[in-house]
Specification:
nucleus, kinetochore, centromere, cell cycle, mainly alpha, PMF1/Nnf1
Length: 169
């Protein structure tokens, strides 16, 4: 791989990483506090850590998936060939081999489409993961409400028993 092609490959990877960084920015503690006002401070802190871990994991998974996709699609090789082709065309001013341009265009469109499909699939997985997390949070809320209700019933029962004992005396 020549220096220019490796530079293009590096630029492609860097652009992807910058793009997903914008999509997967971690939320602040204040965002979690505003979004879940009924949670206790401890619950919000655990949720904040969980969300940040999820964002970090998703970021790493997307980067890994992108790298695998680039390897499977032989992106570095394609960039090398494109670089060689561009260099040949710039040296041969009279060249009019339109078929090569069409082939390159078709390959690039296919790679783009595959990349979009992969990212859409990854996004769907992330949305499913988010929905699972929301369901778990709701379950935790319900369990917390049930615990509070049980505690209230126990207190009322104790109070009622205390009142009966005082009336019996």
């Amino acid at each position: 791989m020549d220096l220019a092609a490796s530079g293009r490959n590096y630029a492609l990877h860097k652009s992807f990483k910058n793009a997903i960084k914008c999509l997967l920015t971690a939320c602040s503690r204040e965002d979690v506090k505003r979004a879940f006002p009924s949670f206790t401070d401890g619950e919000r802190e655990r949720l904040y850590r969980l969300l940040n871990n999820v964002f970090i994991s998703m970021h790493a998974n997307l980067e890994e998936g992108f790298d695998e996709l680039c390897q499977e699609g032989q992106v570095a090789t394609a960039l090398d060939k494109i670089g060689d082709f561009v260099e040949e065309q710039s040296l041969d001013v009279l060249s009019s081999d339109n078929n090569s341009f069409e082939e390159v265009e078709q390959k690039m469109l296919r790679l783009k489409k595959d990349g979009i499909e992969y990212l859409a699939g990854s996004l769907k997985k992330v949305e499913e993961s988010n929905n699972d997390m929301k369901a778990r949070i709701e379950l935790l809320k319900k369990e917390e409400d049930l615990t509070a209700a049980r505690d209230l019933v126990n207190k009322v029962t104790q109070w009622n028993s205390a009142c009966r004992n005082n009336n019996d005396v």
